Batch of 2 targets.
Target 1
Amino acid sequence: MRATSTPKTMLYTPPTTEQLADLKQTLGLTGKQMAELFGLAGDHQWRKYTGGQQPREVSPQMLFFAMARLELDEATISRILQRMRSAGATIDLSGAER
């Protein structure tokens, strides 16, 4: 999307808890690894999206972030992170503090 384009309203339906469980199984990841993939603090946070009385819905931004990490090469991810930094963000996917 270019800066001159008009943003469109997005249609989004989040994955169900069953679909998230299927994704976890397909990827062969632990709850902790899924939390890391989605940018969450830990597996206890991941469980909030996959169970309980009222599980949280995965936002489109979270899902995009996770899928981008699965699909994009390291060079592309690095360029995006650098662009985020140039916009004023502090980000380190390893969780290292400065």
Target 2
Amino acid sequence: MPLPKNHSFRLLFRGLAAFKQDVLKDSQASLSVEVARITFGPIVKLIQDFVTIDQFTPPILEVGGLTPMGTAIEYALDFLENRKQTYKDIKT
């Protein structure tokens, strides 16, 4: 897999790959960690719904215009709250 061209993005990509490997090494975490991907440039949108860590592939990140990070963080928090509610609903 080719690395991103931007140095900061290469470091972030390596960090995401290390995150995946570290979670996979932990038997309990590998069964419970889920990851979703949200992009925020130039618009905020869901790229990948929640998947287990073994299904997660660290993305090649690219610079793409404006970065509405505040909007993306709010979207991510709402998305996470919805996921938590889904788990609560399943328990009842």
